[in-house]
Design brief:
43% of the residues are buried. 7% of the residues lie in helices and 42% in strands. It is globular. The protein is mostly beta strands. It has a single domain, classed as Methylamine Dehydrogenase, Chain H (7 Propeller), CATH 2.130.10.10. The strands form seven sheets. It has a five-stranded antiparallel β-sheet, with no helix packed on it.
Length: 385
């Protein structure tokens, strides 16, 4: 009897334990299943342009606003390009189509908002209204093949016309064309700049440089020290004039009084100094086409420095320095615009929306850098504020 009572008691205790375990499980609920990790989503390093880059865009016609491509570029993935820390928002890139077959070579934004450009293939000067996208072409004369254009102290566009072998001025109000022929043979005119005395200095790739006095119309031509090659030209805030020689691989300082040129050798032999631009301190920045480098000459110290552009095959063509002393270049090898911050010695890449754009010259006004896309029949602007 005692054994039977003990057995019944054990069974009761076991039943009570099972009931307790069942109640405890009910309080916690069923076990949650394992959660799989979310798959990573690839992100393109560059935002897509809103219009297809290969699309054919018809030339603008009167009363019609042409399509305008606009993108906000991202930093280049190249390990040698470092983003520039900046308090301003990311620059934007916008393209403006010009009449097909124009092949714009140089561009010059004017203070009044107009943007002038040389339509080299058609022998005309173009003017763009960025507000509407409308363009207008002004014929420069039979045989014209304009290369460079700048806006002078008088507010007018001045053109170096290799086809006419002349300096050309166009009145911005009346569009009257005035031609100043060179007194010498063909020099293959390239680029121009004004000095502080109001004289226009120019280069000729055939081996010459010269000056024009707009007040008298007198033109003088000088032989370059090493023959063919004079290309880009610039004036410093101090009033000095320098030019770059592509074929000669040097830059030269011109004595604006005597007209004599003094050769200054960059450190890299055969670098192909193509264009030059002065910053606010009078330092000369040079696009070294053959070497894929940016060069800088400091007249105060007589010293040079050079930096290789990012990428596998950099081909810096144009160079320009904006009002912040940021240096801008066009890179044929990367089909991009490139900025360089001298303070941090860092590059930033801005891929161009159109393939094979071939930007041959840059010029700007505060907040904007403009380029001529000779390979795409477009103008392009980078706006950074």
């Amino acid at each position: 009897m005692a054994k039977l009572a003990l057995t019944v008691r054990a069974i009761s205790l076991l039943a009570i334990s099972l009931l307790a375990l069942t109640a405890l499980a009910a309080c916690h609920g069923p076990a949650s299943p394992a959660v799989s990790p979310s798959p990573s989503i690839p992100v393109s390093p560059f935002p897509a342009a809103p219009t297809p880059t290969g699309a054919s865009i018809p030339p603008p016609s009167p009363g019609r606003t042409p399509p305008i491509a606009e993108v906000t570029p991202a930093a280049s993935p190249s390990p040698t390009a470092t983003a520039i820390p900046s308090p301003v928002e990311t620059p934007s890139i916008q393209e403006y189509p010009v009449p097909e077959g124009s092949h714009p070579h140089d561009v010059a934004p004017a203070p009044d908002g107009t943007v002038w450009y040389t339509a080299q293939a058609s022998g005309e000067l173009g003017r763009l209204d960025p507000a509407t996208g409308q363009t207008r072409h002004i014929p420069l004369g039979e045989g014209s093949r304009p290369h460079g254009v700048i806006v002078g102290p008088d507010g007018a566009p001045w053109i170096t016309d290799s086809g006419l072998n002349a300096i050309v001025r166009v009145d911005p109000a009346t569009e009257e064309v005035r031609v100043f022929p060179l007194p010498t043979g063909y020099v293959n005119l390239n680029t121009a700049t004004f000095d502080r005395n109001g004289l226009l200095w120019f280069t000729g790739q055939g081996g010459a440089y010269g000056r024009l006095d707009p007040a008298t119309g007198q033109v003088e031509v000088f032989e370059a020290p090493r023959g063919r090659g004079p290309y880009g030209i610039t004036t410093t805030p101090q009033g000095d004039v320098y030019y770059a020689s592509l074929a000669g691989s040097y830059i030269a300082r011109i004595d604006v009084e005597t007209g004599q040129a003094t050769v200054l050798e960059p450190p890299t032999p055969g670098q192909g100094a193509r264009r030059a631009w002065s910053d606010s301190r009078g330092r000369i920045w040079v696009s070294e086409w053959n070497a894929g480098q940016l060069g800088m000459y400091d007249p105060a110290s007589g010293q040079w420095r050079e930096w290789r552009l990012p990428g596998d095959n950099p081909q810096p063509y144009a160079v320009y320095v904006d009002e912040r002393d940021i240096v801008w270049l066009s890179d044929f090898g990367a089909n991009a615009l490139v900025s360089f911050d001298p303070a941090t010695e860092t590059f930033q890449m801005y891929p161009l929306p159109s393939p094979n754009a071939n930007v041959r010259q840059l010029l700007g006004r505060p907040g904007e850098v403009w380029g001529a896309e000779s390979g795409a029949d477009k103008l392009v602007v980078v706006r950074y504020r």
